[in-house]
Specification:
Topoisomerase, domain 3; calcium ion binding; two-stranded antiparallel sheet; single chain; EH_dom; DUF5600
Length: about 350
């Protein structure tokens, strides 16, 4: 049995050892887990094991996408390398004499191959990373007759350029996007994935934590700290039971969260979209801020279990309202930039 600190030391030693065994440019990824089915001796490792398990299965889900990207990158690299080889071979053939002094000229060209690289790089605007290894190329050229090299064929180079500019872009667009959203269906299902992707039982990954806290409970989760939030609300000088953007902002910025995060909190909390916060919405805003401060992510849309009970009917009507009637609702006094990234600005 090892504690959390000892586990990290073992992990570091394993990574160091693998670095000498696995000769790959990428850093080896080691996942930490446990097959122990008895009570954990060090419960502090529980979250570490759960996080690592999620990372492992998430990476397995992305294997098809990563394999396609790897193949495309290899194709691009080989196409560029073939293009550079064509320029090099053409330059060597062009500088060879037709009759006398072939052997001596060949030795000079091999010796000064680095200068040929520089010339090709300047003339054709090619990155130095696209050129083959200089020493290895010099060793290989010793065994070839430069006079038998084929001349440069511009038409074939145009085909390669067209492939890199158009065909590769089309293939890249066909590859699935970077992340699988929480609502989309996973690509790999069944077996061990069913246990890891548990969204039904209360023992699923991060169930009942962060934004999921209060899900399935009869009482609104925000009500547990409502007395504290109501006291804040009253000190901010509400007008007709509501706080202006400036008044709410003065309290929300005390969290020291970035404006982009606080702007997201505002948009999630202003359920009725009137540009102000009533006591329920303010309590919700403070609850979301606490969730973020505790290290959890905020959702893009407010989950149903966090909607204030007084707003359920209004929210339903807001979604059912035709697009043409949206303008009738009172607009918040924000600038366009504030709507997207920041808190609401003060009223004039």
């Amino acid at each position: 049995m090892v504690d959390h600190q000892q586990l990290m030391r073992v992990y570091g030693a394993l990574m160091w050892s693998l670095g000498k065994v696995l000769q790959t440019p990428e850093v080896a990824r080691v996942y930490i887990g446990s097959f122990w089915d008895q009570p954990l001796r060090f419960d502090v490792n529980r979250r570490l094991f759960e996080d690592e398990e999620q990372d492992l299965f998430r990476d397995m889900q992305s294997l098809p996408k990563n394999a396609a990207l790897r193949k495309l990158n290899d194709l691009i690299k080989r196409a560029r390398l073939a293009k550079v080889h064509a320029y090099i071979i053409s330059a060597l053939r062009k500088d060879m004499p037709s009759v006398f002094g072939k052997d001596g000229k060949k030795k000079d060209l091999i010796k000064n191959l680095g200068q040929i690289y520089d010339q090709i790089q300047r003339e054709h605007q090619i990155s130095p990373g696209d050129f083959p290894d200089l020493k290895k190329m010099q060793e290989l050229l010793v065994h070839h007759d430069f006079t038998k090299f084929h001349p440069l064929k511009p038409r074939l180079l145009e085909i390669v350029d067209k492939m890199l500019a158009e065909d590769i872009a089309h293939l890249m667009a066909m590859i699935p996007h970077e992340d699988i959203s929480a609502t989309s269906e996973p690509r790999v299902k069944g077996g061990a994935f069913d246990g890891v992707q548990d969204t039904v039982s209360p023992f699923g990954y991060k169930r009942g934590e962060g934004i999921d806290a209060g899900h399935g409970e009869p009482e609104w989760i925000v009500s547990k700290e409502r007395y504290k939030y109501d006291a804040m609300f009253d000190t901010l000088g509400p007008i007709d039971g509501k706080l202006t953007g400036a008044a709410a902002k003065s309290e929300m910025v005390k969290s020291k969260l970035p404006n982009s995060v606080l702007g997201k909190v505002w948009k999630l909390s202003d359920v009725d979209k009137d540009g102000m916060l009533d006591s329920d919405e303010f309590a919700l805003a403070m609850h979301l801020i606490e969730i973020k401060v505790n290290g959890h992510d905020l959702p893009t849309e407010l989950p149903e279990h966090l909607v204030p009970p007084s707003k359920h009917v209004h929210r339903r009507d807001l979604y059912l309202k035709p697009d043409g009637d949206q303008g009738a609702a009172k607009q918040p006094p924000f600038s366009i930039l504030a709507q997207e990234t920041q808190l609401p600005q003060s009223r004039p």
